[in-house]
Amino acid sequence: MAIPSAKNPILSAKNLCVESLGAKESFPVLTDLNFSLEPGKILGLVGESGAGKSMIGRTISQYLPKGFAVTKGTLSFDGEDLVSMAAERRRNLLGRDIAFIPQEPLSGLNPVLTVGQQMKEHLLRIGLAPGEHWRERALKEFEAVHLPHGAALLEKYPHQLSGGMCQRILIAMAFASRPRLLIADEPTTALDVTIQARIVKLIAEMQKRDGTAVIFITHDLRLASQISDEIMVLYAGRPAERGPAKQLFSAPAHPYTRCLQLANPNISGPRRGLFILPERMPGLRVLKELKGCRFASRCPNAIEACTEIEPPLADIGPNHIAACIRTEKTPDIVPPPLAPGREIASTRIHLNGEKLTKAYTTAWSPFAKRNAFKAVNSVDFTLGEGEFVGIVGESGSGKSSLARLVVGLDTPTDGRITLAGRDVTANGNAEKAYRREYIQMVFQDPQSALNPRRRIGSIVTQANEASGLHNSTRERMDRAAELLKEIGLPPDAAMRFPSQLSGGQKQRVNIARALCTLPRILVADEIVSGLDVSVQAQLLDLLLKLRDEHGFSMLFISHDLSVVRYLCDRVMVMYRGEVVESGRTETVFANPQHAYTRSLLAAVPPDDVNAEWSPVLAEAGYQVE
Amino acid sequence: MRMFATIAKLLVKRVLTAIPILLIVSALLFCILRILPVDPAAMSLPPNATVQEVEAMRTEMGLNLPLYQQYGIWLNKLFHGDIGRSIHFRQDVTSLIGSTLPATIELAVIAMGVATVFGLAGGLFLFYVRGTRAEAVMDFLSILLLSLPEFLWSLFLLLIFGVFFEVLPFTGRLSPGFERPVVTGFLLLDSLITGNISTFLNALEHMILPCLALGIALSPSLMRVLRSSLLDAYQDDYIQQARLRGLSEKRILIRHGLKNAILPTLSLMGVQFGFLFGGTLLVEIIYSYPGMGNLMVDAIRNADLPIIQGAGLTYCIAVLVISIVVDSLYLILNPKLRVR
Predict the structure, then answer these.
(1) What's the ipTM?
(2) Looking at the 3D structure of chain A, how many domains does it have?
(3) Each residue's pLDDT tens digit, B239-281
(4) What is the domain partition of chain B in residue ranges?
(5) Residues of chain A with a CB closer than 8 angstroms to some CB in chain B
(6) DSSP H or E segment with residue A377
(7) C-alpha torsion A556→A561→A567→A572, nearest 10
(8) Which of A126, A149, A176 is the last residue of a domain?
(9) Could you tell me how many CB contacts below 8 A there are between chain A and chain B?
(10) In terms of residue numbers, what domain contains A143?
(11) Predicted model pTM
(12) Which uninterrupted H or E stretch holds B53?
């Protein structure tokens, strides 16, 4: 007789394997997944992109990419096997008993239908109580997720709402049917840090209300440890470690977990160096041939035995398992010492902004000037030689507008910009040419910033086309080779196209392009957001290394406060177009003066898993329109 | 309500911009046709007229005045609905266009309807068979269709259904012996209004072949645009999200996919509809259809300047009206364009 467990799991996987079955070759996507999730519990799934986190959600819904199939094992929902279940039965469960919250809230809603139309469609499908009108019900569900002005909201189209509001609507939809299982796939990645805190708290609140079991997928180990009961760390489609969230986070047993943790900059306490995970995860195609531990090639603790047999998941504590034969050595992995703090050698000011303002008038009217929306409002700043200055704030705070003024993509409506002693406010052709020599910009999304039809070698030396200098094929090839070496890409990358590179490599190319003509200033707009922490750490150290070599300064825009704390010498906090606080990074973060800075900092999940995470839920506020 | 306000705003804006466009087009029409080496005065007199008579006629017609004055007079008349008299038909151009334009509009509207039905059905089918073996076959067929022009279809259909099977009429708008009611000038509409069912059915029979020819020729590009916009729409998260909410594939396609994918198709339809007004020409000739196309051909052959000018202006107005209608439809279907 089996001992009856306290609760029957709502979802359980037994030896689950998913493979991509191609005509020529097949390779494993998920290998030997075992877990069970009880009602009311939250399971955090953590790992780099490509680790198979999202594949679990897709396996549950059985909307797998073409050619992917479950080849072994079972995945049962409340005792029924989801894989062998009739498609119609499974579709019936989706949206009712199993709900999903997507990563991109704005694109998760249909752009041509109102919120009301979509809400109605969903509510009618999941069924209403007798005599209940869908509208009343919708308003009730909105109230539950703290969305005010529900009635007005029903008439809105998704593009009229903020990302946070769309995510609340999607959460209201997901919980409307009181589902027994919820899969939240990176639900806050696309949102601001303050909104992230609110959304995570909201999911936890709703989950408690309904006793829903949740699979919370995220690349952020710190966030997962705050919200989850249990965490499973995936590496290349296989669990590396699984255990109670707090225990796993405070004493990781698998070297991969430890490395992930140390690759992320800390937000409190003294700054520490970042652990740089070398290379990247082995591609799923090579895994088939790989003997031994999947992580061995990147593991600082790997010994010869690690490359011989694949380590089994072994118990290392109560409910805590890890797939490593040397778990006792894991605590020995320590971050490298922090690069010695740079003393700003010269106080030469490269860039100076005085009372910089950018106002947009929405319509022509006699009151246009008074009603103008000020994206950037009377901002003063300086950027010294070799200095990295971070600009932080929520979206809409004017960070990117300020960057556009600095690089000359926009002309200020008021104020003055001085660049290396010359006034460039007017932004005419002469100023633009002058600016190009001094400033280059690195854009956020390498996917769209790199022309897919050009080879890397020609992309990184694009600046030579504009200047006309060193523009012969020979010279450009030579320069491209130098640049690629500096950013750590193999020389043969010059002949490749962007689509043949990984996300992190593309962002390196993006940086190399900006550095081609050795500008004195880089403006970087969210260049590490959306990347894995391992890649992020590589890029941050690359920027520091390049500064040591070339001595450029940088305006670094980011919504990630811990990244800014690690990288930047000074920080400016922007709120509604104004700089509300600025100063040396460590001083500002250790002792924030402005309430807004404090609320930004409080929204970041703390380093210490046992610390109370109490994001300040005041300020800004969500409003209709 | 906001939607109507935005549409009203759009209408005002578009009508205001239409005025200079019409002025420019009218000036171009006037100048280019005056530069042509034809003498309207000589043409409107019998061939045995003397030089003095021609001169007298020139003075009477105002042809000895400077060009800008002539344009002013012409524009003034135009403003009062007088485009002039056809030299060849010896009839007011307004009444000539008035009797042929409805015929062409009828043809174009029904042809566009046929194109829409075929285009949407074909596009949905092309999308439906994506990734199957039938896709290659359908793809081939749609390209084959795309490469057949409307006059070839006209000839095929005429030969098959008109000559070989003799099931459908293929000349004119109506068989001889049918009463022709005139209320609005739109034959199908008028016969329905007056309750003349036999005329209605006969006129409808006459429309089938030319409308099919035009509709079939226009539909393949619609199919292909709709298919590719559906493929784009299906890349978006909201489709995946709708699936994860357990909606049926049919509902996702019609309510979520098609509603987004219809937008590019709609703008193509607007362009096509504009072209149709000039593009019915060959089909009208093949089917001896008494529309604007046939009128234009006669006018050009006879260097009948007033008709050419009138037809040119009519075409310009038609295109402007169509673009306003399409843009309003766009506003209705695409909420993102409605500004707050």
Answers:
(1) 0.82
(2) 2
(3) 999 999 999 999 999 999 999 999 999 989 988 988 887 788 8
(4) 94-292
(5) 61, 63, 66, 91-96, 99-100, 102-104, 107-114, 121-122, 125, 157, 159-160, 170, 173, 625
(6) strand A373-384
(7) 50
(8) A176
(9) 70
(10) 112-176
(11) 0.85
(12) helix B51-61
